[in-house]
Structure formats: C-alpha cells, structure tokens
Amino acid sequence: MIFRGLWNVPFITNAYLVNASLLRSYDSTKLTFSLPNVDADMAFCYSLRDLDIFMYVSNRVDFGHLINYETYEVTRAEPDMYQIFENEQAWEEAFIHPQYHENFNPEANPKQPCPDVYWFPIVTRKFTKALINMMESFGKWSSGKNEDTRLEGGYEAVPTRDIHMNQVGWERHWLYFLQKYVRPLQEHVFTGYYHNPPRSLMNFVVRYRPDEQPSLRPHHDSSTYTINIALNEAGKDYEGGGCRFLRYNCSVVDTQVGWMLMHPGRLTHFHEGLLVTKGTRYIMIAFVDP
Ligand SMILES: O=C(O)CCC(=O)C(=O)O
Ligand SMILES: [Fe+2]
C-alpha cells in the first residue's frame, strides 16, 4: 500500500522544489546553506526553520523519479536496454509501445491478420533500433547452416541467420520482458493457457538479406506459441519479406515496426519467411514452450 499525502517535515535532504523568486525575497544572510560545522542540507533546513518557513514532502504529484545507475554498464552497446530490473519505470517509458496497455481494453478486439495469428503493438522504435544496434555491434551472426554449436544437439533443422539473446548478455532481461509484457497478451487471446513464468529456450534476432539468407522454408517452430516482432520497416528498409501461414494461405507482409505477431508454433501454423528482395529485414523471435 502506498500512502499518498503531504507531510510537514523539519528536515529534507537531496531533493528540493523551490520557487527561486521566493528565495530572493529573503535576506540572504538569514536564508543560507552554509553554516559552520554542518552540511549544506542541515544548514539550509536550519535557516528555513529559523525563518518560520515550513517544509513539505509530497507524493501526491509525480514530479519525476531518480534513476539508479549503480549497475549501468557503459561498455555495452545500448546500456539502457539492460536497465529493465534497476529502472523499471524509466525502461517502460522508453521501450514499451504507448498503445501497449490499450491491447487489454475489453472494447477493442485484438487484430488477427490470419486465423489465430494475433498482432499487438508492444515496443517502441527506440527499442527496435536499440536491439538491432546491440546485435550489429556484436556482429557474430550464425551461418544459417544446420550445424549450430550454440544448441544442445548441435543441429538446427530450419536454421536462420541469427544472434541469440544470451550471446549479448540480454537473456535474463528478455525473459523478464516475456513474463511481464508478453505473457498477459497470450493469456488475453489464448484463454485458459497459463504458464508463469513462460519458458523460452530459443530467443534470437533474425537477419534476412538477398545475398545472405533471404527467406526461410516452410516449417513448424519448436514452441507452443511463437512471437515475432518486426524490428524494421517493410517497404523502406527492405522489400519483400513477411510471414506466410500455408494452411490458411495467409501472409502478413505489412508488418509494423514494434508490433508483434503471436501464433501457435506447431501443427496448425506451418509457416515460412517470405523472400527479401532488397535491403535487410530484422525480426525478433521467441519460441515459448510451454
Ligand atoms: O520471417 C518470418 O517472419 C518468420 C520467421 C520464422 O518463422 C522463424 O524464425 O521461425
Ligand atoms: Fe518459424
């Protein structure tokens, strides 16, 4: 329980909100922050009390918040992305799509571009840009071949050219994002399916290019459900691309940056990554299972 109120207090340290014109209306020899043997806060509060000026602490209004930078790692590409635990509120403001909470509005039907393929705004362009930059700064894209030493069996049946989240030290963060922001959307559209936290062993960013890997053949994912976030812009950053669900002969080609597709992984949603004919297409994929 958070109590909200306005409290009259004798001493405040670190944070003040003072109208400067008020300060000027007092005699500066009496209203001072320097007194012998006490620190500036003590001196300032002492002289305020001496002048019968009341001090208040209020949390009725949000004036902003302090950032905790103790764990801030400046050596990383996009250190802000790693702050999801330490600075949750600032993280959400920077990286969660402004329409995210609207997804839960009972009046609004979730978008469904193909049968049982749901489509949600979830992250900001700041997020998608940062994620691409994290991956490109790391730069060690997989070969896109079946042999994959990052996997337990050393083999990937339907390989993409990709970088896994754990390769950039961002897996814990990503799993927390899945639990906090993706899971409630899943529960919203696939009713009665409940796994908290969701488990996801495969979390990666895919890069398609005409001269590298330009497409992905039809396959099922090793997931109960898959999420697929568009990280850059169809028709501008690349041409072609998109995801086709063969059983429904239905494609999503007008993907929107920061929007996420969510679809069942096996059995019904046999799908393929459509050919990129120009530029580079980036997507973020997670195979959630269970
Ligand atoms: O290109 C797409 O949108 C589909 C990607 C995909 O199916 C996968 O990575 O498993
Ligand atoms: Fe897939």
TrEMBL record:
GO cellular component, one term: endoplasmic reticulum
Domain of life: Eukaryota
Keywords: Dioxygenase, Iron, Metal-binding, Oxidoreductase, Signal
Cofactor(s) the record lists: L-ascorbate
Keyword Iron included in the entry's annotation: yes
GO terms, molecular function: iron ion binding; L-ascorbic acid binding; procollagen-lysine 5-dioxygenase activity
Keyword Nucleotide-binding: no
Domain Fe2OG dioxygenase: 197-290
InterPro entries (alphabetical): Collagen_mod_GT25, IPNS-like_FE2OG_OXY, Oxoglu/Fe-dep_dioxygenase_dom, Pro_4_hyd_alph
Record Pfam families: 2OG-FeII_Oxy
SMART domains: P4Hc
Name of the protein in its database record: Fe2OG dioxygenase domain-containing protein
Natural source organism: Rhynchophorus ferrugineus
